[in-house]
Task: inverse folding
């Protein structure tokens, strides 16, 4: 079953874990999402935290659209916009469709490394600024409801603000994660 924009018109904390195990294709290339991170507007690590800008305008638009930005001026990153200026960063997927295309875009053939990490994933899927603001339920995007996979929760990675929040979700045991999930530290 295809996911519609209404699926995203909810709290990012409901949507993010439900995306693990779903299938994401861009122009027929992609695979099963195995890792995501949630960012809400109250989160100092979220791009929407400081308010609307030209760069983050898609986060403030309707839910069910792509928010694409450049990380450190180098890598594109794909986020799926949810309600209330929040978004899910797609961190990794298990390649299942268009492996040859992904390998050519990435310059490597090792399936585990094709889309493990948000920059690698965007490169493998051919994501650029041209995808920013596009609806997720229309071409070039296709999103299909999740397979029943075990989901683990851990700490987000690659950030300094609010890094202690356990808003990273991954498929338990997947070899396609960008990094192993770290459980939340107890104080």
Result:
């Amino acid at each position: 079953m295809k996911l519609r924009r209404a699926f995203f018109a909810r709290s990012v904390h409901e949507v993010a874990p439900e995306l693990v195990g779903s299938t994401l294709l861009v122009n027929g290339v992609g695979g099963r999402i195995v890792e995501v991170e949630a960012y809400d507007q109250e989160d100092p690590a979220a791009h929407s935290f400081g308010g609307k800008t030209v760069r983050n305008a898609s986060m403030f638009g309707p839910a069910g659209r792509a928010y694409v930005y450049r990380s450190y001026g180098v890598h594109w990153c794909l986020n799926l916009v949810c309600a209330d200026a929040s978004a899910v960063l797609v961190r990794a997927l298990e390649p299942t469709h268009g492996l040859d295309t992904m390998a050519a875009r990435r310059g490597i053939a090792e399936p585990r490394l094709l889309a493990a990490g948000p920059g690698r994933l965007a490169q493998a899927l051919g994501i650029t600024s041209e995808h920013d603001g596009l609806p997720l339920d229309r071409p070039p995007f296709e999103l299909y409801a999740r397979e029943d996979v075990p989901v683990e929760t851990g700490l987000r990675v690659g950030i300094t603000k609010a890094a202690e929040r356990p808003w990273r979700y991954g498929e338990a045991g997947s070899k396609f994660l960008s990094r192993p999930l770290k459980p939340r530290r107890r104080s």
User: Anything to note?
Assistant: Residues 150 and 172 are 5 Å apart (CA to CA). The chain has one domain: 5-171.
